[in-house]
Structure prediction request, 434 residues.
Amino acid sequence: MSKKVVIIGAGPSGVLLAHYLLRRDNQYQVTIYERRSDPRLMSFPNARTFPISLNDRGTDALYQIPNVEAAVKRVSLEMYGTVFHQAGKTRVTTRKRPLVTLDRTNLVILLLELLQAYDNNRLNFYFNHLCTQVNLEAKTATIQPLTAGESHTVPYDLLIGADGSHSIVRAAFLTHDLFEFEQKYVLNDYKSIFLAHPQSHPEIKLEAGKIHSWRTNDGTFIVLLHQYDGTMGGVILFPRQHNQVAQLASCEDVLQYFQQHFPEVGQMMTEAEAEAFLKRPITRVLTTSCSHYHYSDSVLLIGDAIHAVSPAIGQGCNAALEDVAMLNSLLNETGDDLKIALEQFTLRRKKDAHALTELSNYSFPSSTRLFIEFILREQLGKLLHRLLPQQCPPSLSQLVFETTVPYAEILKIYQPWINKVKRATERQRNQPIN
Ligand SMILES: Cc1cc2nc3c(=O)[nH]c(=O)nc-3n(C[C@H](O)[C@H](O)[C@H](O)COP(=O)(O)OP(=O)(O)OC[C@H]3O[C@@H](n4cnc5c(N)ncnc54)[C@H](O)[C@@H]3O)c2cc1C
Prediction:
């Protein structure tokens, strides 16, 4: 008889996992509960979305599912480097392996659309349904419909917590003695930015095929990506303390702020976008870390629920998709023995998930002085690796973005640098909040 799997969260990891499970010979009956509306039926929800870039870690997991690669290619672009803009000057770094960039919501939409290929009797979706509680012993989840209907409990054989950094499934683990959990807010908050076609401003040169980044001395920075439809999308990240972005109170304030501090972005920003920017909520970013990811043979946490990291490192989604591929390999290895597969998932994933959190928190310093040191180290690292590939490892960013070297190995190589940034960050964190 097939096992009843309940997935909480239709983000990239939850929906990709549904694909993997449905391909396993009728063994699983999958039901997904998602608190938000079905993104396929909504006008493009700018306020809640942002572009993400994926490297081989994420695309290897995605492209094992038939037709996903072609669908991703239709809504993504390849990026071969980054242009850093500062005071009218630019500095370019290039990469050999391109990053695939696309909007998070578009990734979810294409994965949802491709789920139609499977037998309807083995798959159910419930959007606008919030999971409010999990009873680990009874193996039930409480589901609250958000539009109409009563709260009810659903039984499961396997529950997947793919419900992001504020995971409610993970919260149920907290009732168990041996579960340890740590969360931290990163020092930067963010808001999404969406800009019209840059072609309408020929005076602004934003090379295609490159990620564009601007940074001010107070640690505020913008990352903008060309989108497949000709627009540009990205985020502005800014320090929570002393930040000007939170103080912007009118459309004029917004335009003036960008024109003064990020002139290229300011020129491309329309009044409508300034208005929309003002209304968009400021989002705080949580990083999470847990002692284990499974409960017995019946619950598993994946993705941001176990290793939410700062967007600055561009790895959260890559790692979330990697989790799914790893679980699939473990099911193959163990002949779908959930007890062993879930235990092994914790054992094998923990080192890398913890290392990813460290790398995300401390690879890229926020102080200007250390950031310059980071750039110099990167340049030197790349040069030495090119000249002496056997003796010198690739630079930190090359290892993270251009290889699938496990995060734990990268951390081992760059531990002294991470320690240095950690000390500086802790000093900054301990400054009094105004
Ligand atoms: C600004 C920004 C830029 C980023 N850029 C990159 C990048 O370039 N590269 C990269 O790899 N990663 C990037 N990330 C990280 C990436 O977006 C996440 O790591 C990824 O989305 C995690 O996927 P997930 O499926 O685990 O969780 P999520 O995407 O968080 O999805 C969780 C889903 O669960 C639903 N949910 C939550 N609670 C409940 C509940 N109680 N009941 C029902 N449903 C629930 C949510 O609505 C959501 O749809 C970025 C993140 C941000 C914020």
In short: DSSP finds 14 helices and 17 strands in the chain. The chain has three domains: 3-76+103-183+286-360, 186-284, 364-429.
